[in-house]
Amino acid sequence: ESMTGYKINYTQFSSLEEMETKIMSNSVQYDVAMCSDYVIEALLEQNMLEEAARILLSGGVVVLPTETVYGLVTLWDNEEGRERIYQMKRRPANKMLQMLAADISMACRSGLVSSPELEELAVKYWPGVLTVVARAEGRWVPTIGLRIPDHPFLQALLKKINHPYILKILY
Is the pTM above the cut of 0.85? Predict the structure, then answer.
């Protein structure tokens, strides 16, 4: 299989081969990383985890696979990254964005307010695709749609950066 971990600069390439060639030659600067879920093991071996973490920690936005779809990702408290996601998706700023965290305690450090009901749902359904809307405190929103992903790359990235991030699906 060809390498399908790649970076894009909000641009459509005419083919995957063209994209891979430009990336491998480092002929273009990119600020959004994209990788395919069917090559996660290869991506881990090829330092994509480190690259995604570097981009996120430097204020960037990455495109990553989830258990079901691809999504735009930036750190939860990255105001510029939030604005970029809203712009890229042409999404009104009053529409909330989903939080992905490694666990409830990570989400609580960023404003989620835990409850016994949330803890019960967590034990039963997480990690997984369930998103639960819970009360929040802080500057962003009165509630947070939280998900604890089961995807190995997303979990590894959350643990590496030790910070929750926003996920907005691509479609």
Answer: no
